[in-house]
Amino acid sequence: MTRSTKGGQKGARYAILVLDMLDDFVNGKLKCARAKRIIPNIKVLLEEARKKGVPVFYCNDEHLPIDTYEMKLWGPHAMKGTRGAQVIKELAPAKSDYIVPKRTYSAFDGTGLERALKGIYGGKGADTVVITGLHTNICDRHTAYDAFVRGLNIVVAEDGVEAFTEQDHLSGLEYMKQVYGAQVKKVSEIAKKL
How far does Cα 180 stand from its chain's mean position? Predict the structure, then answer.
């Protein structure tokens, strides 16, 4: 499959990460009531990214029953092959998008995300990830850590991520900003810079 290599301003090679915008997190077993407010913002960002040839990666929980570390804490959720593990229809992936199944909080842990990011832009690789999706203080934060230790620049879409509570959302943003040097920006600002 070939990918466009335009996109991104000089010196920046972006990749959009959409974390866990899944039926179980938006409507189902682990519903985050605050998730619906970010859907339109993520949609705008994805449309702009696709227009400009910026690669989009859906990083989705796809659990197995043996994932007891999370099952004990959260109960069964986003189980592989179930409706709960499907991306919500409002943000359905395009044919050109990448799908990265994950079984832990981080989109990098035990997945092919790092290799895929290195392969885009004609093999030059992405140097900046834009984090969107759920949850600011959990999967977003753990993904940001793994991006940080891999030397990637991190942009967090302030109005494109959410958590169960406002406190969890704000603490997650602050942590990523202070500890990983993440830039926290509005979707409208990010979309202009792609």
Answer: 16
- For residue 135, say if its preceding peptide bond is cis, omega within 30 degrees of 0: yes
The answer to whether residue 8 is domain-embedded is no
| 35 and 81 Cβ atoms separated by less than 8 Å | no
pLDDT, average across residues 22-49: 97
**116: containing domain:** 14-193
pLDDT at 3: 37
Report yes or no on 6 lying in a domain: no
Q: What is the CA radius of gyration of the chain?
A: 15
List alpha helices for the chain, DSSP H: 23-26, 39-51, 68-74, 113-119, 139-149, 166-180, 187-193
At 189, which CATH number? 3.40.50.850
Residue reference for tokens 């407010």: 37
Task: In whole angstroms, give the CA distance from residue 133 to residue 35.
Answer: 8
- pLDDT for res 10: 61
Residue 161: closest CA among 146, 143, 147, 145: 143
pLDDT digits (tens, 9 = 90+) for 103-156: 999 999 999 999 999 999 999 999 999 999 999 999 999 999 999 999 999 999
CA 91 from chain centre, in angstroms, equals 12
Q: How confident is the model at residue 9 (pLDDT cuts 50, 70, 90)?
A: very low
4 falls within a domain? no
In-domain check, residue 84: yes
The tally of domains found in the chain comes to 1
